[in-house]
Amino acid sequence: MGNWFRSGSPWIWLTGGAVSLSLVAVLGLLLLIGWKGLSYFWPAPVYQFEIEQGGETTMVIGEIYDRKSVPVEQLAEAGIDTRHFTGDKVLRYMVKTGNRELPGSDFITFLEPYIKSQSLAQNVMVMDRLKNGRFYGFPVSLTDDGMAIPLEALPDSLLQATEIREQIKLLETTELAEINRQFEQLRRDQLRRPDEPQNHQRKAELEAQFQSVTEQLQALHQQLDRDILTMREMSGLEVDISMGQVLDLWYPNELTTGGKFVHWLKQVGKFIVDEPREANTEGGVFPAIFGTVLMVLLMSIIVTPLGVMAAIYLHEYAGKNTFTKLIRVAVINLAGVPSIVYGVFGLGFFVYMVGGTIDDIFFSDQLPAPTFGTPGIMWSALTLAILTLPVVIVSTEEGLARIPNSVRHGSLALGATQAETLWRIVLPMASPAIMTGLILAVARAAGEVAPLMLVGVVKMAPSLPIDGHFPYLHLDRKFMHLGYHIYDVGFQSPNVEAARPLVYATSFLLVTVIVGLNLTAIGIRNHLREKFRSLEQ
């Protein structure tokens, strides 16, 4: 036994077991997040409950959201009459009924002993809307500008409403946005040249264009509200809903397995490509995906050359003296600084100092409204570049140290300068290590939230950092981020229960984005490693 311990075998098994447990835990967590998030988009069956409580019978229609066993003793302490309950525990149902504008809540809870009957609701429709979440009910009638039309025309009416909404969005994001941009440019020109006669003519032309676009939008909105669908909800109340507010509708209890899968794919696609609604508790997360990926790419472009140049100086040029040792100690200490400290530094140095100076020099005509002296995606990328800089420096320096000195000496002996040796020989051979540092930097930066809350990320961004107007990439704009979206939906949402599945879905999407970025970098690193393997040998 003593020889076995001295051989080191127990520690090998212990280390292997710890690694295996860690992998199982990580995979289990990913599976849990994926299941909780992706199952939200599956069309759940809608049940009809007949509840008898206190001598009154009510009808409840909705999806079973949660079941939980509750001790009878706990219910009795809460003042509930439990004399007719059997057993020590009873089930408490939480049913998602939607129709938020009527009862004021998406959910109803009741105890199993109060259920008089339970069955699948027949001909029930689930409707996804722009406001107030989902609506559960039974279609009664459909009218077009007051004239009754068959309910079979619902798909055509929904398609027409979708097309009109797209036209409205196109007008608002193209022509109306361009007019507003020209109005802002005209305001600046009037500040610089207040007596210019052409300014009055330009203003009149822009006002005429604005009036024309406004009339087009009004006509489209009137056309959008022509079709009215009358629905009967669970209490028997009939509610009129404009088809302009309807995004999608389906009969969940009548869908086949294939139909449910197609519906699931469509809902997942909408979640990825749509914009958020209802304080981020509804809709998609495309702006957050776009902002996360763009910020990570900008950070990578900034941190890679800075980290590589710093590592080259420390390993190839700096002497082994006290100053170099202090720099190495500083780099190591920077890796342990809390991320929120970097956020405070970015806000004070990049935003207020650098950005404020840029505004004073180049954008003085727009003050007091700042352009670069306010949080934006460029300052966020720079802040995260400083945060991840030590990782790239250490990884690159380790890669440079693995290259034999004989390679450098051979290049110098052939007449190459030290700079040519670094550029043509050393750096290509160290590129796999550089990519390793970049992979670690991306993995950390993509999940950071605390510093971004100070230097650029917002709950809702009015527009993407990229559009069709010069300079096309607007680095001064604020942006959305998947990590902050998770925090906002999970902890700041006015409807926590309804938003909880979106927390899982967005978390799974963030992990997927990070894995995708890392796999891309790993593929490049492996290609470079194979390319320069012969030189290392």
TrEMBL record:
Gene Ontology molecular function, alphabetical: phosphate transmembrane transporter activity
The ABC transmembrane type-1 domain, residue ranges: 289-521
Localisation per UniProt entry: Cell inner membrane; Cell membrane
InterPro entries: MetI-like (IPR000515), MetI-like_sf (IPR035906), Phosphate_PstA (IPR005672)
Topological type in the membrane: Multi-pass membrane protein
Biological-process GO terms, alphabetical: phosphate ion transmembrane transport
Gene Ontology cellular component list: plasma membrane
TM spans (from-to): 12-35, 285-314, 326-352, 372-394, 425-446, 502-524
PROSITE patterns: ABC_TM1
Domain of life assignment: Bacteria
Keyword terms: Cell membrane, Membrane, Transmembrane, Transmembrane helix, Transport
Location (main, coarse): membrane
Family: Belongs to the binding-protein-dependent transport system permease family. CysTW subfamily.
PANTHER family documented for this protein: PHOSPHATE TRANSPORT SYSTEM PERMEASE PROTEIN PSTA, PHOSPHATE TRANSPORT SYSTEM PERMEASE PROTEIN PSTA-RELATED
The protein's name: Phosphate transport system permease protein PstA
Species of origin: Photobacterium sanctipauli
Gene from which this protein is expressed: pstA
